[in-house]
């Protein structure tokens, strides 16, 4: 078999097809490059480019399928001789590759009932369609074990690891179940996803019913039945990214931020839109994350001011109560001490649970904390983006490789979480409040120091882009604390 030449144009689509004695056929679109085996009419390689193949900073996912370990049709597994002849048609918005049985093939003597396979590859999205003509039910096996490699992050950052088998219905998204489906007008997708990529298949309306079977942690088999002997499947093979998903089906937007309530997901979408806009303006992801932190700080200023107001009120009450409660504790015990304590709260006209008011100030900001956490953690925009010593903002910064493994922390020293902790600790050091003196001030600072250490442990193995955001946010808070300290 002689090699197959192919040329990639930046703005236009090109297709180079093999000569008659070659076995592989390559189709290129702006988002996908698929190489087909002419013997069994199945993909041999399926390469994905994001945002597109002409982008110099593109992210590429290369999936090999030489042994049909990723994608296969059971009826074509044992074919060894070329029984199909390819026919190529280029349309305005798609490439169509048809594998038809050769004229000299005896259909009755074949072990496969598949007479024809059509592939339609979109030029404008990550969608591909497959139409199979068969007199028998079709069995498609998908195995993402080697195709979609999961993340390999240690510690708490490991929550981004793993591969999920999912089903996306119009109502929700969940795990694939071993069950039968009667096909109706509803659009349902089944497939595999990792943190940044997904491969999904959707049986179309001409399929009467289908069954999901042989499900394990990485693979499943879809067995379909059609009265018309025609089986139409749509595929989405691309990034878990809003514009790419929506270009194929608005329903696939459910893949984003699936663990959150809908109202929190909309906050994530808003933050994602701001980050995308800033990145399109600056062209540098590290700086875009820093600016995003500044923008969010500005947008949250009214809530932050309210939270600080409540915190000051709590501190004022604590400063008034502390010496009086200390005196009661020294002079009285039992029921008498309890009665006098309640009288003290009544005199100040506060509820004994008044400290929860300061907690409420924090709670109203937590939705933004969660939304930023999820948005930056799932954003493929951070992948392969560098900043200062950080080679990839989508993983921990790996400032220095360690000659040994530390359980939970891994084999690298991450500098950015340490800088974040130091910035937060400095904020605690310079913290002051006109109502807190002596023991109360020391207690508050101790809480802030503990919080700084807790966030260091929490964020140590999290993506560097996320840690960069919180380091920037804490730096802005430090500047504010220092300004207020020396202003007074």
Tell me about this structure.
With about 500 residues, this protein is of the alpha+beta class. Helices cover about 35% and strands about 25% of the residues. It contains 10 helices and 21 strands. A hairpin with a 4-residue loop joins strand 3 and strand 4. Helix 3 packs across helix 10 (about 465-485) and helix 4 runs antiparallel to helix 5. The termini are far apart.
Give the helix/strand layout:
Elements (H helix, E strand, L loop, with lengths): L14 E2 L7 E5 L3 E6 L4 E9 L8 E6 L6 E3 L10 E7 L3 E8 L12 E9 L4 E8 L3 E6 L20 E5 L4 E3 L4 E3 L6 E5 L3 E7 L5 E5 L5 E7 L4 E10 L2 H5 L15 H21 L2 H15 L1 H31 L2 H15 L7 H8 L2 H13 L21 E7 L3 E4 L1 H16 L7 H22 L4 H24 L1
Antiparallel strand pairs: 1-2, 2-3, 3-4, 4-5, 6-11, 7-8, 8-9, 9-10, 10-19, 11-18, 12-13, 12-15, 14-17, 15-16, 16-19, 17-18, 20-21
Helix pairs in contact: 2-3, 2-7, 3-10, 4-5, 4-6, 8-9, 8-10
